[in-house]
Amino acid sequence: MKKLTALITLLLLFTLSGLRAQKFEGLAETPPMGWNSWNKFACNIDENLIRTIADAMVETGLRDAGYIYLNLDDCWHGERDSLGFIQPDPAKFPSGMKALADYVHSKGLKIGIYSDAGRKTCGGRPGSFGHEYQDALQYAKWGIDYLKYDWCETEDINPVGAYNLMRDAIHAAGRPILFSMCEWGTSKPWLWAKDTGHMWRTTGDIYNCFDCIDQHPGWAAFGVLQILDMQNGLRQYAGPGHWNDPDMLEVGNGQSVNQDRAHFTMWSMLAAPLILGNDIRNMTQETKDILMNAEVIAVNQDKLGIQGFRHLVEDGLEIWFKPLENDDWAFTVLNRTTEPKSYTINWEKLDLYDDVAKRFTNFDSNVYSIRNLWTKQNEGDTRKVKEVTVPGHDVVLYRLSKKK
Asked: What's the mean per-residue pLDDT of the chain?
């Protein structure tokens, strides 16, 4: 009887998906914020770890700062049961995934899970290929809120078809689940995935390094600056409900405070998902101050949802702008070098028109107050030329607010 019920359910899901194939709307209206297990713990995860992370997200104040998704990455999987439904690893998750989801939800958080469009996940666990509707139904039954969907073991699989298939399966299962596509930008998902996923990876994996490439046979992982450069030309494809994803944050994983501050700033300027990858149970005060700076988070979470852009490159420095609500702008000077650099900000010479926001800065006729978002100090306005010194691998970040 159980087998018959399961088969009938799957048949209904296939039927419903054909009638209304779409992603769930109303999710990720601003870039998603949360935590993911992979960067710090890789396959070394279990239910005790996830419960302590949930506790820490509340106790540290991360949840209240906006980080609401607690996402399990690869290696939670056990085997499929006799009907083909995926089960969690019984040794790592003896209480089951539904009980874990209930615990996470009890903390005022949402829970995410991981799968793969291929035959196996990148960690060698069962992939969703051929089981998409079963897996979506299982996630809905468990109470999952977020799915990261990877791209290993996908030989001869079409990415557009594979990701649309899982989108349809999620929708047919009936539970709103944020769909995070992770095929590393290979098929240029920004060109086709607006109606498929809520976010899509634009590059290969991030590497815990500010300026380097971790090369392997056949693939590579990239430092912060390398991934930043790969976002060039993509900003027009991002917006509320559909974000470019330059991968998770490495803040708090051992880079310098300057580098962590620059990393967090640039991901905020990119309107990137802010998915933490550190051990939040053991953070320095400096790491907390970076990750929970409400004024920097507000740049990332701005409701216009417009990705920032590099306007000027000069002597190892980059000048970035990001249009914000109420005619405000975020303004960043990024120092890519390891030495301090001085720069004279002549606002009128930086006057520009942003063809995505359809807005001029008009520094010649508008006056903006200057708020330093890292020192949390007001620093005059744009009527005067401004001298700044930016430490190596660091930033100066201002919010420019138009004076009425």
From this structure: 95
